[in-house]
Amino acid sequence: MLGPGAADVAFEVNGHPASVHVPPHHTLLDALRDELGLTGAKRVCDEGTCGACTVLVDGRPTYSCMTLAVACEGRSIETVEGLAHDGQLDPVQQAFIATDAYQCGFCTPGQIMSVVALLRANKAPTAEDVHRAVAGNLCRCGAYPGIVEAALRAARARRR
Amino acid sequence: MKSDHARVVRTRVEFEGEITDELALIQGDDVEAWPEGAALEKVGRPTPRIDGASKVTGRARYTHDLRLPGMLHVRILRSPYARARVRRIDASQALALAGVRGVLHRFNAPKAAFRGEETIFRDEVRFVGDEVAAVAATSEEIAAQALRLITVDYEVLPHVVDLEEAMDDASPRIDEKGNVEEAAKHERGDVAGALREADVVVEATYRTSTQLHNSFETHGAVATWDGDLLTVHESTQHVFGVRQGLQAALRIPYGKIRVLCENMGGGFGSKGGVGKYTIIAALFARELGLPVRCVLDRGEENLAAGNRSATLQRVSVAVKGGRITALAHDSWSNAGQGRWVADPTGPTKGLYDVPNVRARSYKVMANTGSLSAFRAPGYVEGTFALEAAIDEAADRARIDPLELRRRHAAGEHDPMSGLRYSLKRLIDCYDIGAKEIGWSRRKPGGLRGSAPGTRRGLGMASQLWGGSGLPPAYAMVHLNPDGTAVARIGTQDIGTGTRTIIAQICAEELGIDVDAVRVEIGDTDSPYAPISAGSLTVSSIGPAVRLAARDAREQLLEIAAGIMEVPKTELRMQRGSIGARGALRSIAKVFEDLQNYTVIGRGARMPNPEDVSMKTFGAHFAEVEVDPRTGEVTVERVVAVHDIGRVIDPLTARSQVQGGVIQALGFALTEERHVDRATGRVLSTSLEIYKVPTVKDVPKIVVRFVDVPDTEANNIGAKGLGEPPIIPTAGAIANAVSNALGIRVRHLPLTPRRLLQLVAAAEAEGAGGRGAARPS
Ligand code: FES
Ligand code: FES
User: Whole-prediction pTM value?
Assistant: First the structure.
């Protein structure tokens, strides 16, 4: 194979240090799923159109299939696996369950990460804000009404 | 005493519009359905999914997520030609690549039967995407690289990909018998006479486009052999169907095959059985002695994993004296390389009480990927054409289109079989929906829109589907000493919440909490259950689960009667306890002296009644705003009303309806597979180009259920809901747009370009005197 060989990359995943040895063209999604066994983020299109691979990179919702793993050196990555603490689900996760904001659940990890990022930036989002936040997260099952409801519900729960 | 002996019965079953008599093995006796108004504690209550936590934490494991030690990866070489003979394959360079473990193609692969053919790699490939060879390697990347090192010598043959071109006698023949084949026909009454004598006759041609499922989890399997035992993890709607396909392909006993599907990322009809990728994974795994993963990528998914056929439909409606006197419907569907075809004339034959009906449906073969069932196959396409034509007839006859339908919707007998309906509340659906949408605002010619130049319209369409379920289906319920239970059944959850409804039914019968029931599905080592398709899961497995739980309960009561020294008939089981007149004892307490005992209940789905017709009905109402200058259609509101018998979980049922409406929205407005006629290549293989609805496209969706149990259908009174909500939406939207603009919509999806063409055509015609395109 041409080009530089595999390199060590160190970053933080869900608050813990992690390092992977990956070729430079491998994506963050490859690293998470194949190297670290974090299969919550899903590969649906692998080209930045569906949002199923969304994770937070330094707090920003990011398509991990469009992000090179080597570009994540020193960054902080958050995935759906890291949201619950001590067996306690994040309010967004709880709201997704309460409003049935999924069907097959395949897009769900990505949807949840987009909503989590929204609620950190905006404590009282409108439905319009939610639409904008998850506009890049497709759902083939059409769970959108529940997703919007879940985001608004989680925001309310957080404010209390 | 219950009759425990197994016996074979004949039962009438309906699957996706086809009614057949089948034999089924059953055991035990049935119980009466819970009556209307029964005081149920779990069933009918909004219940969040019991597997919700696994889905929101990323813990839910899908086939895609499986990583087994030593696992190899497969990539498939697919034909770049729409039709060609594979003359020679040279894989030596690919095999020489470091990391490549094997290559399979038609010259070295063992025989493996697949859908009536003897081998999975054809000598004549018949669509762009047809399997030519497969490579197994230590990584997907290496396998993909190896594909480029395989040289194939093709003899390119003439092809045809387009439906209407394939129907043309001058086009290349794919099959010796021709490209067009009759698939279904029905005639009742005197259609020609009714057309002759009618006051108004509408005759119009409708077209729908090929829709791609785009399940988020692409098709795929992971196969592994332990000695002679094959285990396959597959994203599938039917684990038992995959097992059967593997048995046929590999000629090994059922006892040596186990198929698992813990979670699946959507299927929508396309994951009904074994795939070539499954067989390829199993063959490589056997040959190489390691687990093998074969998962399609998004592009392959949209080439070779099925689709909803494009259709060409001609519909005639005759109206006389304010009633529809005849319907005629001819339909041609592009089956691609499929061996069957769905029937778009189903709704025309059975939805309305019309005395004179003629329906014919044809399968057309072409050099494109095979169709596969796509959520209400045929009925989505056919309902659009039928309901658009009925609206056109209503406009011409100056009758409110809902009123015209009402005159044909109250019949108590199925016009196809003559049998009485077990339950039919279509008129209720109309009443509820009309009120909710504000149907009285509808005016012929539409309403003014919210912005200058825009128009607003209302439209509706009705829905007919089966969904009554069928045997065989079996369930087992294990009741543990602490009062918790495990339900085992070989069904699978396509995403509708199957585990949760099983837990609800179990909990209801056992008088325990829903949380106290663990549900094990997706495993062929569990009792048999049918395919999760055709809206038949709840109505097939639900009654079996109820009987299994009941069997466990009866056994426990028997034991408790002995221990408590109270006659069994006086004992009740509720809230985790067993009691009789004041004395209450927890299940755990009853078990105390029995050591580590498990009560095992069994249940079988009983046959369907012979003397009734069991259907689901519904109506959707749409309100749209249209900008005739940009061609943009905004669907503002959809009211979806369904009559599906008892609703087991209103929470997940609502999701299913919303999901159906949204998928239909894509079918109506944006989703279309584009194929290049010259090369046969699919141009819309990515989610960038193929437009599925996004959150911003979604209208306000109001979901209503009639929610009256069908107590004749089965012991839980429920019918299916998978397909009903996708069936009438496109018709309702098309009719709303027609109402808004006074232009007939006859071609879906109604993209801005198509709408602008319609507007331009209507204006051109209007210039020469108000033409037939406008309602009189
Ligand atoms: S998989 Fe990354 S955006 Fe689709
Ligand atoms: S829940 Fe299935 S894709 Fe969103």
Answer: 0.96
